[in-house]
Amino acid sequence: QIPSQAQQQDASYQYLTDPSLDLTKGTVPQGTYQFDLPRPWFRMSQLLPLLHQSLGQMKASQHIDYNRVVRKLSQGQSIRRWPRSRKLLWPKSLLIMVDPRKSLEPYWSDFAFLITQLKQLLGNEAVTSIRFDEQSFDESSLYATPWPGRPEDRWYRWQIPETKVPILLLTDFGVIESHPTARFRWQQLISKL
To answer: Which residues of the chain are modeled with pLDDT < 50?
Structure first.
């Protein structure tokens, strides 16, 4: 039985977007040489401070900011309210948008590792990682599904998140393969945010 063209595209698409379908150690046919996985560019201990600085949100703490108190008093200003120090905290929720194009396949395991680490740090409920349906970029509403995906995951109409929700983009914006369509689509999406 010959699969239809839609079934072939769907199977191909699943391979391109699902890191669990990637060839990993133990699943490769015997006698096939497999290179070691590349070392990550950053260890998590190096990457977390960068992510915290980029994604963190400033919040007022309970501690008095004595530097501001002294500065105001030295300038002869009165203090009506005690100034509170501000602290950079991890966000309560985080949206991660993943670009699962074939050219980024070498980075899928890094993407999945980063998402797993952020879910452990912030909690599963706080971190949402999605990918978009490539065909819906040309429509008025975008469709998304969780990434990494499971067979039971379904596409849903994506809503633009609240402005206070930080967004982490895991993409190259079409640069690796000089993909003008991908670049244009990401520019459109970012302009909507």
So the answer is: 1-13, 15-16
